Amino acid sequence: MALHNPDFTMEDDSWDNSSAEFEQRSQLGSEMTSLSRSASSEKCELLDNLHVKFNISKMRDCLVYFVIHAILYHLHSVSPLTGLPSALNLTDVHDSALLKLELGGPFVADVVDRWTEEYITVQIGEIEDPRSRRRWQQQVLYNWTLPLLSRRNEQVTTTKTFEILNRLAISINIQAFLKESEIVPLSMKYQYLHANIETQVTIASIILAGVYVLIILEIVHRALAAMLGSLAALAALAVAGERPSMVKVVQWIDYETLALLFGMMLLVAIFSETGFFDYCAVKAYRLSRGRVWAMIIILCLIAAILSAFLDNVTTMLLFTPVTIRLCEVLNLDPRHVLIAEVIFTNIGGAATAVGDPPNVIIVSKQELRKVGLDFAAFTGHMFVGICLVLLVSFPFLRLLYWNKKLYNKEPSEIVELKHEIHVWRLTAQRINPASREETAVKCLLMQKVLTLEILLRKKLKTFHRQISQEDKNWETNIQELQKKHRITDKILLIKCLTVLGFVILMFFVNSFIPGIHLNLGWIAMLGAIWLLVLADIHDFEMILNRVEWATLLFFAALFVLMEALAHLHLIDYIGEQTALLIKVVPEDQRLAIAIILVVWVSALASSLIDNIPFTATMIPVLLNLSQDPEVNLPVKPLIFSLAMGACLGGNGTLIGASANVVCAGIAEQHGYGFSFMDFFRLGFPMMIVSCTIGMCYLLVAHVVVGWNS
């Protein structure tokens, strides 16, 4: 073994600039052992009493934060498998409840199968008598095995937490098992945490419940509620002993999703200048022949089909403006139609491997591909189940809307006047009176609002409120609408269709050809920049004003909140408790109960928290469960149950899926915002019914038919 760079200094001024530094020595002992019965011709020299110096800033809360940089192993042996142990003894455990290890090295990411040819084993043990001068006796508490990549220059960081409550001293033993003599670079950090897992999960649940209370009761805007929740979660992490730096917190934000949203919002904002959305609204009305429910079903079906191949967020960014304009033309309330569309968008996204982020995560796992869960197999299985869900969901949606009046109760002239007042008032509020001219403009706008309000009162006295009926003379109405709503800028429309078609084509190509190293965010941003150049937009601020900045801020805060809750072990705890429930079920009923549990736990969890980190956490749990010889469960039914619940569960609440939030933000910008409870009254029953149909399909396919191979 060769140990390089034994002396180093770790400086972190952000902890405590005024505190005095202290030096602590840690003893690293090693012994060369051979795990092969064949004799080795080389002699191994015993390395002992190697001292590694750690220069660490003292922290206010006595947090111990050690870093071992670049522990390099060099194995000199001709045996086919050689192990080299090295130990680090920790005697300053005190009253810590958890030990968090962060190990960096050439590890295989997200691999659950531990039986590989080359791997690293980390043993966490308790030292019986640390005060004794004789050789310390170690009792192994935990074993952590990490498979190694063949390419040693790649670095993957992995983290795991161990319970060490009521332990006097802890020993960390690292052992490498290799086939050939070579160097393996490793880095390790360890940190003491003061709160146990149950306490952290309780705190995380309280924070999540508080965020939902703020959103449901509409005490503050949902973006501010997510920001307050993320701040509370970060404070809980600091109290527990883990203090992520600002750099790490910023890294928790999913910039690909934000770039996708921002780019598509710019594209849609320029697209709306052509009059294309009005034109599509009239065509949809003509296709439905004046029947409102036929039109709603056509819109929902098209949205479901598109979302099976496009991202759900992209589908709603394109569909929401068209739907709003269509409802304005027909004097319909857009809220009910938009909620129905976004529900079927989430259902359709579950049909293929590229329609929803949880499905993308599943098919991208190499371990699942090895058992036959590739793109074709996953899509073929899920497509059949989602078709059954759609067949039941359409009649159930009609049942939910049975007593709802889709038409506005007031004449269209009054509705348009109210909406015009709302838009003028919103425009006036957005003007910052920084100069005399801006103050004058704001006063003119408010005067315009007062004039329109007086006109509205006069019209309300003149017209009697009546519930509109479905148009009987729809052919005459269509002719009038076609004269009124036409394409206003055909040249700009051609440019927009060209760029948008290219962007959508690249979305498809990126899903099926992994060789293109552009994610969805980059494609959307490049398309937006390209269209801005072609359209020759001079009033750039007008386009930026149409971007839903509150929605982008909400997503950024939500990403931080979910990652902080994951660090508080909330998601891991849900997965572990689900696995424990499955293990206690009798073997003859275990598969059926496992499918039911995974579907409903995934659905309920995805309606409350982001389904992306939940899916990424549950996949290793389910793989471990299927590989446990005592459980004896096939892996495919478990993964399909996870996908079904995670995708369909997004319909449960307004923040259950990204498409829900995007649709609500755009609708709010147009003056038709809907609240958390408005969505919940329709979305949650649809989620219950769709998950029930999906669960029944999985039970028949895997328990009755035995479609597990």
Largest sheet, described in full?
Answer: 8 strands, mixed
Global morphology: globular
- Count the helices. How many? 24
Secondary structure: number of strands: 12
- Main structural class: alpha+beta
- Termini separation comes to 46 Å
- What's the gyration radius in Å? 30 Å
Strand portion? 5-15%
Unreliable segments of 5+ consecutive residues: 1-85, 464-471
Mean pLDDT score, rounded?
A: 76
- Assembly type of the chains comes to single chain
The percentage helix is: 40-55%
Organism: Crocodylus porosus
Pfam families: CitMHS
Keywords: Membrane, Transmembrane, Transmembrane helix, Transport
Protein name: OCA2 melanosomal transmembrane protein
Describe the protein's architecture and organization.
Keywords: Membrane, Transmembrane, Transmembrane helix, Transport. It is a single chain. α5 (276-287) crosses α7. The model is unreliable at 1-85 and 464-471 (pLDDT under 50). The chain has helices spanning 197-216, 222-240, 246-251, 255-271, 276-287, 292-307, 312-329, 334-349, 357-363, 366-370, 375-400, 412-430, 436-462, 474-484, 490-512, 520-535, 540-545, 549-567, 570-583, 590-608, 611-627, 635-648, 658-669, 676-704; strands at residues 7-9, 21-30, 33-34, 50-57, 65-74, 82-90, 98-105, 119-127, 138-147, 156-163, 170-178, 183-193. It is 55% helix and 14% strand. It has 709 residues and is of the alpha+beta class. The strands form two sheets. Strands 1, 2, 3, 4, 6, 8, 9 and 11 form an eight-stranded mixed β-sheet that branches. The two termini are 46 Å apart.
